[in-house]
Design goal:
Number of domains: 2
Distance between the termini: 29 Å
Order of helices and strands: HHHEHHHEHHHHHHHHHHEEHH
Structural class: mainly alpha
Number of helices: 18
Helix content: 55-70%
Strand content: under 5%
Number of strands: 4
């Protein structure tokens, strides 16, 4: 069986065209990450050298554990700038020696964006979280009185999830802000997997070898199983490569790994996150879930391809399926149709939507967090598609004949 898997890997995936596609897409991915840095970061060294220098000069002074002393020190610098710029009458000279960047307005906007607002958000977050807990506890009392057990449990889970949340440190989080919501590489992986998987079952059919294979000892469902395993290994390796490339690319281009140990809700876009993980932990969990979602989609590609004798038809059909999945995900994003949202396996691939908000689905009267429901449905779909692939495969003619002969004896 191992040799058969190796043969299928070599036959379908260790091809020059696939390796070239991976190489080209890797370069495109790296360029995309660089463009995100250039377009979104105000402290990019190549486009904003002054801001870059000043930000990291002040970083040692204000980063780390947030203390009252640091807050007062920051405000002592910021308040005068705020007053000077309030009526837009401050000097616009760009060589002011009494400023950090050479300009009063530039100092004000730099401090506002990268120090004052992040510190304010971090300091106030624990109070916002406590308010959520208090509201949830009040709701628990209300729903307990009217006998609504489902809503009681839902608010109980919310209260437990947000209890004791706080952000104690100020850190550079720009790298993780864009890295953890980066989905472009997922699209590249999808295209590579689609291209690689479309010929797994079609190649023998196009050469009229599928019937002949049934007369061999390793033919039939044994070959189908080997193809599936080889396909999943291919998906795993491609995913691993691109997820690592994402991390390395963002780390090198943004030039920092600061903030890895801070909780995910340190990022404002994740302030209502449904998990209590650090940013580095979330990155690993997200990558694993992405890979699992890609495998489910890969099984769909294989299932569609196995029903055709020509590569062009399943390739086109799989492109349509992929487009529908992506469009459905975009339409459902941010909507209240939670069950419809998580029923799409592509939500596992571009999964930041699952974790940014705390949402629930009703499973037999029990509130289940949406990401748990999405994982459960993904696993269920994966098992169903696997059995369909195995049991729609034709049986080995020799083995079947031997079985019949044994029965006659």
């Amino acid at each position: 069986m191992v040799n058969l898997i190796k043969y299928e890997l070599k036959k379908h995936f260790l091809k020059r065209s696939i390796l070239i596609a991976i190489l080209i897409f890797s370069v495109i991915n790296f360029i995309k990450i660089h463009s995100i840095y250039q377009e979104n970061s105000y402290i990019a060294e190549s486009t904003s050298p002054i801001w870059h220098e000043v930000y990291w000069k002040l970083y040692d002074q204000f980063s780390g554990v947030i203390t009252q002393e640091k807050i007062e020190e920051l405000l002592s610098i910021y308040r005068p700038l705020e007053q000077k710029t309030a009526d837009l009458t401050a000097s616009t000279r760009t060589d002011d020696p009494n400023t950090y960047t050479g300009n009063v307005y530039s100092d004000y906007y730099l401090l506002t964006r990268y120090y004052v607002q992040p510190m304010e958000y971090a300091y106030m977050y624990q109070f916002a979280a406590n308010d959520i807990v208090g509201t949830a506890q009040n709701n628990m009392i209300f729903y307990d009185e009217i006998g609504n057990k489902y809503k009681y449990r839902e608010n109980q889970m919310i209260a437990k999830l947000f209890a004791n949340r706080s952000i104690t440190d100020l850190s550079y989080t720009e790298m993780y802000q864009y890295y953890l919501e980066y989905d472009f590489s997922s699209l590249l992986v999808l295209l590579i997997c689609l291209y690689g998987l479309v010929g797994v079952f079609v190649s023998e059919k196009e050469a009229d070898m599928d019937t002949l294979l049934l007369t061999t000892v390793s033919g039939g469902r044994k070959t189908v199983l080997a193809k599936i395993i080889a396909s999943m290994l291919f998906i795993f390796v491609v995913c691993l490569w691109f997820w690592l490339l994402d991390f390395v690319g963002f780390s090198i281009i943004f030039g920092s790994l600061e903030g890895a140990a801070l909780p995910i809700y340190t990022l404002k876009s994740f302030e209502n996150a449904c998990i209590n993980l650090s940013m580095s932990q979330y990155a690993i969990v997200s990558a694993v879930i992405k890979t699992g979602g890609m495998m489910v989609l890969g099984e769909i590609f294989l299932l569609i391809s196995s029903a055709s004798k020509n590569a062009m038809l399943p390739f086109s059909a799989n492109l349509v399926v992929t487009g529908i999945a992506i469009l459905h995900k975009e339409i459902m994003e941010g909507s209240g149709y939670i069950l419809a949202k998580i029923a799409n396996p592509f939500i596992l691939v571009a999964n930041s939507e699952l974790f940014r908000q705390t949402e629930f689905v009703n499973f037999l009267g029990i509130p289940v967090q949406s990401y748990v429901g999405a994982l459960g449905l993904g696993i269920l779909m994966g098992i169903v598609f696997l059995f369909l692939l195995l049991f729609t495969g034709r049986k080995n003619a020799i083995v079947k004949g031997k079985a019949g002969a044994n029965n006659e004896l």
